[in-house]
Amino acid sequence: MKSIIFIAPPAAGKGTQAELVSKKYGIPNISTGDLLRDIARQDNELGKAVKKRLDDGLLIEDEIVLEILKNRLNYEDCKNGYILDGFPRTVVQAERYEEILKDLNKDLGYVILLDVDKEIAKKRIVGRLSCPTCKSVYNNMFEETMPKELNKCDRCQSELVKRSDDNDETFEERYIQYLEKTSPLIDYYKNKKVLRVVNSGISKKYTFESIERIIKND
After folding, report:
1. Which in 23, 110, 204, 217 has the greatest CB count within 10 A?
2. Which listed residue (96, 122, 124, 128) is catalytic?
3. Rounded to 5 degrees, what are φ and ψ at 102?
4. CA-to-CA distance for 30 and 47, rounded, in angstroms?
5. Closest CA to 6 of 177, 126, 185
6. What is the pTM of this model?
7. Taking 80 as the threshold, does the pLDDT of residue 154 lie above it?
8. Which of 79, 135, 163, 213 is catalytic?
9. Is 37 a catalytic residue?
10. Can the peptide bond before residue 88 be classed as cis, meaning omega within 30 degrees of 0?
11. 3-class SS letters over 91-137
């Protein structure tokens, strides 16, 4: 099993697919955000510096992110592959990541673009509802994911809630950031002839089966 990089616009289902792949193939899903938050809880100079930047809403310097990631990839559970969540975000990070792979004698692995129509992605965000009790997630814009009873959880009958940032304006901001920062990665990996594209706008099952085919047919 190789490592996997998922590139995806907002609401493409990256988190869901990463979880499914991690469970099926027994490889860790590594989130750089989680790694940084773990460091921020440590009572040392680096932990305090990272915590301050996170608290201030500032980006963490690439040097720090790369060093923390390199250390994590040395863990035994990464020996047979891993999934990268939230990294790389820029071409510069992608180039530096490949330097790390050379140092660790690891292959680049799979780079998979989860492609979804913008309007479908927007509906996934704007229509999202969640249960505060059992954490079930619904969507009132797609028939297959609507709750059976309006605004009531199918499992526990709790009142469903909507996140304040699940709106048109926030989605547009996130999508613009994706186009500006992440889209160049698509061209970067396409030019290297390693990019695989999966349509993630049909269903969760279809997306996962498409990813499985990439892995099995490699």
Report:
1. 110
2. 128
3. -65, -45
4. 19
5. 185
6. 0.85
7. yes
8. 163
9. no
10. yes
11. HHHHHHHHHHHHHHCCCCCEEEEEECCHHHHHHHHHCEEECCCCCCE
